[in-house]
């Protein structure tokens, strides 16, 4: 996207490591494992809405952390 720069793999790894465990797990399962929120909920034993919420909060926090690395 215009105005966005690529983030290095090391910076992404550090940013992921800075997330709370539940959010990190949700982001990982959604992006790298390509799970649906239903699948995540079943795997983790949590409601679908909780899985979606953890992902959304995790992505929002990840963006803030990554922006800090870009500064």
Question: How would you portray this structure in words?
Answer:
With 71 residues, this protein is mostly helical. The chain has a single domain (20-70), classed as Arc Repressor Mutant, subunit A. Helix content is 73%, strand content 0%. It has helices spanning 9-18, 21-31, 37-44, 48-70. Helix 2 (21-31) packs across helix 4 (48-70) and helix 3 packs across helix 4 (48-70). The longest helix is centred in the C-terminal third of the chain and has 23 residues, at 48-70. The radius of gyration is 13 Å and the shape is elongated. It starts with 8 loop residues before the first helix and ends with a helix.
Number of helices: 4
CATH topology: Arc Repressor Mutant, subunit A
Broad CATH class: Mainly Alpha
Order of helices and strands: HHHH
The biggest sheet amounts to: none
Rounded to an integer in angstroms, the radius of gyration calculated over CA atoms is: 13 Å
What integer is the average pLDDT? 90
Cα-to-Cα separation, first versus last residue: 18 Å
Uncertain regions spanning at least 5 consecutive residues:
none
CATH hierarchy: architecture: Orthogonal Bundle
| Helix amount | over 70%
User: Based on DSSP secondary structure assignment, what is the total number of beta strands?
Assistant: 0
Counting structural domains, the number is: 1
Global structural class: mainly alpha
Taken as a percent bin, the fraction of beta residues is under 5%
Basic shape: elongated
């Amino acid at each position: 996207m215009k105005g966005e720069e690529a983030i290095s793999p090391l910076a992404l790894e550090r940013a992921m490591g800075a997330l709370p465990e539940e959010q990190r797990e949700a982001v990982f399962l959604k992006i790298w494992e390509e799970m649906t929120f239903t699948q995540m909920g079943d795997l983790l034993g949590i409601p679908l809405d909780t899985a979606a919420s953890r992902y959304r909060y995790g992505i929002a926090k990840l963006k803030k952390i990554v922006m800090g690395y870009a500064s």
